[in-house]
Amino acid sequence: METAETAGAKGLSCEAMDCLSERLSLQEDLYFPRALQSTASNPSQRKAILLDLLSRDVAVFLERYGSQLTSNELHEFDALKDDYEINWHLKHLRSIKNPTSDELHTRSVIVKNRRRAYLNKLIYDGQYFSEDAMREREPFLHHEYVGKFQDPSGRGMARPGERWSETLMRRSEEAMLVAKIRGEQRRLGVAERDLVGNNVNQGEEEEEEEEEEEEEEEEEEEEEEEEEEEEEEEEEEEEEEEEEEEEEEEEEEEEEEEEEEEEEEEEEEEEEEEEEEEEEEEEEEEEEEEEEEEEEEEEEEEEEEEEEEEEEEEEEEEEEEEEEEEEEEEEEEEEEEEEEEEEEEEEEEEEEEEEEEEEEEEEEEEEEEEEEEAEEEKEEVGEDTKGNNKLANGADSMEITRAMDDQHEMPATENSEAAEGGSNHVATLSEADMQDQMDQFTYIMHQKFLLGEDNEHLDYSKIDNDETLDDHWMREANDDAEEKYFDED
What we know:
InterPro entries: Ccdc97-like. The protein has about 500 residues and is mostly helical. The chain has 4 domains: about 5-100, no CATH class; about 130-195 and about 395-460, no CATH class; about 200-270; about 280-390. It contains 17 helices and no strands. The protein has helices at about 5-10, 15-25, 35, 45-55, 60-65, 70-75, 85-95, 100-125, 130-135, 140-145, 165-185, 200-270, 275-380, 395-410, 430-450, 460-465, 470-489. The longest helix is centred in the last third of the chain and has 108 residues, at about 275-380. It starts with a helix and ends with a helix. About 10% of the residues are buried. Mean pLDDT is about 80; it is low at about 1-10, about 380-395 and about 410-425.
């Protein structure tokens, strides 16, 4: 029998080998064994390694790089089909690139079996399908089946051995989950009073309202005190002005008395010197006129000061009136903005209702297509051998779809009945009913995983291509055979 090395030397032309190596060497992420990675840093080195492998062992080349080859490039290896190992790799690669209907069906069966095997593994581990993990992935679904029958206050309490930072983080995550549930409830048209978390927020809102009222009362008291202080200051200023006026009058009287005394002295001097007296009288008259003018000027200044004070008071009153008018205008603008926001919300609700109607029509079409696929799969599964008796059939897909549809209808029908008493009351169930609800929720989560809807949390490509999961069903078959053997004894 020819070895792979001999076949590689005889079957492939140098031109084909050179083209294949040239194209693959340009790929930066091409796989190389650890021992060769240091010598495969540039395309020329990679090309030399690929040419050497092609000339030595074609089967290993196909095993490593067959998935990178095109259909035309695979035809170059048809001359080597007499080698069993090379032929097996060629058939395997072509079945992946251009699968037949039988191969597609076989592949779907294998994928279902591997997903079920991985499902059993996740169930055994106990983490992925724990209640907290499932609630984190599907908060609204958990609420409809289980959460609305539980006491929400317990989720925010500190747990034994838990640090305060961990408690705060958990409360933050809980608030995010509640927000998601409320958003889904609004989308489905649940009344605002029946939204989850309203009974918890009601007490907080009352406390906030009381605090706001107290703050408003304190502000009013402070404003009254400020007004009283301003009035007292104005009264003190008026008293000071009156005192100043009295002092000025007294000074004027004293000046007049002094002037009278001077006049008497001048009269005595006039008798001695008449000429001098006349001159002095003229001077005195001039001085009196000046004094009178000064007095008049002082009185005018006082009147001007009083007028200025009155004008300042009027300006302050006008400013206060303007501020009040501005506040009224701001309130009117806020009311107009609120009305506009309400109109926008109504428009958004109408758009959401139209989107929901379109989604319902699409879901009905998908259900009809899935029913047809399920009937075809049932006919094909009936012809499989006993080794495929445990394979998942299309009915699982229909069950999860119907369960999800029923679940979306529950808020509007029977599930909404629990909330009719108001958001402040939590519906209670017996322990057996509670377990039944939890089992239903867990079953739906299992089916969602099998249908590939957990792609945000799991890499289905790794699961579907994990050949080690096939051993799970071999072990199951062996266990069943042993049980049957010992049962017959």
